[in-house]
């Protein structure tokens, strides 16, 4: 497989990700995730493994975030890693962050890492995500 075709797979998946967010409908997300995908949370030390867990987290966070907007997109030369800068609100707390997304050669997401600032925004997000997902994520990590 040539590098060009790798770029096209990842670019197509990224396009689909943006379209799903614009529609506020992540129902097709499992199609974009590799079975062994991992989610790296800004609140947790260890990653959350597995496509079903990653899908559950991302489907929940899109409901928690208000006024979510991507501002900038940066990609590696091979197109398999992207950085997406965003802003959002959780309740009355504004936050800024980045999504670091890594794709495999087939264009599937293999790693989704999130970094958020300031601390007050991260804490508000962590509290709300914990309230909604704590029992599910506790089981998923064991």
Structure in words:
The protein is of the alpha+beta class and 142 residues long. It has a single domain, classed as Nuclear Transport Factor 2, Chain: A (Roll). The protein has 4 helices and 6 strands, in the order H-H-E-E-H-E-E-E-E-H. It has a 6-stranded mixed beta sheet. A hairpin with a 5-residue loop joins strand 3 and strand 4 (81-90). Helix 3 packs antiparallel against helix 4. The longest helix is centred in the last third of the chain and has 23 residues, at 119-141.
Q: How is the secondary structure organized here?
A:
Layout: H1 3-23, H2 29-32, E1 33-40, E2 48-49, H3 51-64, E3 66-75, E4 81-90, E5 93-103, E6 109-117, H4 119-141
Class inferred from helices and paired strands: alpha+beta
Give the termini distance in whole angstroms. Answer: 37 Å
Number of domains: 1
β content, as a range?
Answer: 35-45%
Tell how many strands the DSSP assignment holds: 6
Task: List the helices and strands in order.
Answer: HHEEHEEEEH
The main pleated sheet reads as: 6 strands, mixed
Q: What overall form do the CA principal axes indicate? A: globular
Q: Which CATH first-tier class would you pick?
A: Alpha Beta
Tally of alpha and pi helices: 4
Point out poorly predicted stretches: 1-6
Rg measurement, Å: 15 Å
CATH architecture: Roll
Helical amount: 40-55%
Order of strands side by side in the largest beta sheet?
2-1-6-5-4-3
